From TrEMBL, chain A:
Keyword Transport among UniProt keywords: yes
Pfam family, one: TRAPP
Gene Ontology BP annotations: endoplasmic reticulum to Golgi vesicle-mediated transport
Region (Disordered): 1-25
Keywords assigned: Endoplasmic reticulum, ER-Golgi transport, Golgi apparatus, Transport
Subcellular location per the Swiss-Prot or TrEMBL entry: Endoplasmic reticulum; Golgi apparatus, cis-Golgi network
Subunit structure: Part of the multisubunit TRAPP (transport protein particle) complex.
Gene Ontology, cellular component aspect: endoplasmic reticulum; TRAPPI protein complex; TRAPPII protein complex; TRAPPIII protein complex
Primary location group: endoplasmic reticulum
CDD domains: TRAPPC5_Trs31 (cd14943)
This protein's name: Trafficking protein particle complex subunit
InterPro entries: NO_sig/Golgi_transp_ligand-bd, TRAPP-I_su5, TRAPP_component
UniProtKB/TrEMBL annotation, chain B:
Stored SUPFAM superfamilies: SNARE-like
Key words, A-Z: Endoplasmic reticulum, ER-Golgi transport, Golgi apparatus, Transport
Pfam families found in the cross-reference section: Sybindin (PF04099)
Keyword Membrane: no
Protein name in the entry: Trafficking protein particle complex subunit
Annotated source species: Lasiosphaeris hirsuta
Cell compartment(s), UniProt: Endoplasmic reticulum; Golgi apparatus, cis-Golgi network; Golgi apparatus
GO process annotations (BP): endoplasmic reticulum to Golgi vesicle-mediated transport
Subunit annotation: Part of the multisubunit transport protein particle (TRAPP) complex.
Recorded family membership: Belongs to the TRAPP small subunits family. TRAPPC4 subfamily.
Any Gene Ontology CC annotation: TRAPP complex
Predominant place of localization: endoplasmic reticulum
Length: 221, 163
């Protein structure tokens, strides 16, 4: 480490106390930057793909089954969702800064703002479950999730969808907005040959019963 | 103008991918024969690489070039390694080999009149880098089984063959 620091005199850290966070010499950390600074900046899809690929391999070494793996990916996305909710609300104009207060507003926020921020486009569709037994289920549909752009799931793991990571982000947003929910990712494309969207993914959002109870009360008042 | 088949050979000479695109272009051979073909080609390629002598740099030239270009000792400018066997042609088909920096070989069997094979093969390499190397479920040096790679490759080759 020492010879590296001498080779690069500019931008090296003064504190060589080993381990922990290191601060740039001018004292400006990422927390000193204005929140809007990286609003329009983009980053490389290739570097994300390699990082995501490593995340999956890392998780795969430590799990026993597919559900376990999806859970792990979900957990990795969760804190991102929590933080993203606050960040994106702050960036809204002052009068719309309040967090979404009903299910529809929340889902629209996810479909439009979250998707636009993460993937540069909106989600493709938003649906409510047509089954009368599950009024608590909503679906966000993405025809080709960006995270799966380079991922080919092997046949023996066909139930796995690596967009569970994105499901975790959505879950984080819902939890952060006080709409506790369980979100899972399901592949629905690729059933037949020559299909338009082989990677089509449904994010199933299942809200906790108390959310629907509250929603009903608000609806009455 | 047709592209018949693609073979990918890993750096140890093992066959990791083979796909035929055009029925009736090449005679069918068994998987075992494909494995032998891959191994044999790998061996012949290695020999042809050594057959072609690498041109020697004059010693004085090298010293001055290294200080001038790289700006420090320990960065000798090395001559390009010789490429080895690149094209193999028969009456009915042409085999073009593309050897990557890491030693993976892409072998493309085409019609003898096929143009721009090097562009095609580079594009295939690009797809390999995208859909095979960025796939978390692919194990290095093992046979390629990636749906996404198959799909993109087939549609790209179909586009060329239908031109």
């Amino acid at each position: 480490m020492a010879h590296l620091a001498t080779g690069k005199p500019v931008g090296g850290s003064k504190e060589q106390s080993g381990g922990g966070l290191r601060y740039p010499t001018n004292g400006k950390t990422i927390y000193h930057r204005p929140l809007n600074r990286s609003k329009t900046s983009e980053l490389s899809q290739a570097s994300f793909a390699y990082l995501f690929s490593e995340m999956i391999s890392y998780a795969q070494k430590r799990v026993t089954g597919i559900q376990d793996l999806e859970k792990r990916l979900n957990l990795q996305g969760h804190p991102i969702g929590l933080k993203l909710l606050d960040l994106l609300l702050i960036r809204e104009p002052a009068r719309t800064q309040a967090r979404p207060l009903n299910i529809i507003a929340l889902l629209h926020f996810i479909k439009i703002n979250i998707w636009q921020h993460l993937f540069g486009r909106q989600a493709d569709r938003l649906e409510k479950s047509s089954n009368p037994d599950t009024p608590d289920e909503y679906m966000i549909i993405d025809n080709e999730p960006l995270v799966n752009a380079y991922v080919s799931v092997p046949r023996e793991m066909s139930q796995l969808n690596c967009a569970a990571f994105v499901a975790g982000i959505i879950e984080g947003v819902c939890d952060g907005a006080a709409f506790p929910a369980r979100v899972t990712a399901h592949s629905v494309g690729g059933k037949e040959e020559g299909e338009m969207w082989p990677g089509k993914t449904v994010f199933l959002v299942k809200f906790q019963p108390e959310v629907l109870e509250r929603e009903a009360l608000i609806g009455k008042g | 103008m047709t592209i018949f088949a693609l073979i990918i050979i890993n750096k140890a000479g093992g066959l990791i991918y083979n796909k035929t695109f055009h029925e009736g272009g090449l005679n069918k051979i068994s998987t075992n024969d494909y494995l032998v073909l891959a191994g044999t080609f790998h061996g012949v390629h290695a020999i042809t690489t050594r057959l072609n002598p690498v041109k020697n740099f004059p010693a004085a030239d090298r010293a001055s070039a290294s200080t001038a270009v790289a700006g420090g000792p320990g960065m000798l400018t090395r001559p390009e390694p010789s490429s080895g066997l690149e094209v193999l042609e028969s009456e009915n088909f042409r085999l073009q080999c593309f050897n990557t920096m890491t030693g993976t070989k892409f072998l493309l069997f085409t019609d003898t009149t096929q143009a721009n094979v090097d562009v095609t093969i580079r594009r295939i390499y690009e797809m390999y880098a995208d859909y095979v190397m960025k796939n978390p479920f692919y194990q290095l040096e093992m046979p390629v089984r990636c749906d996404m790679f198959d799909r993109k490759l087939s549609s790209y080759i179909r586009e060329i063959n239908n031109r």
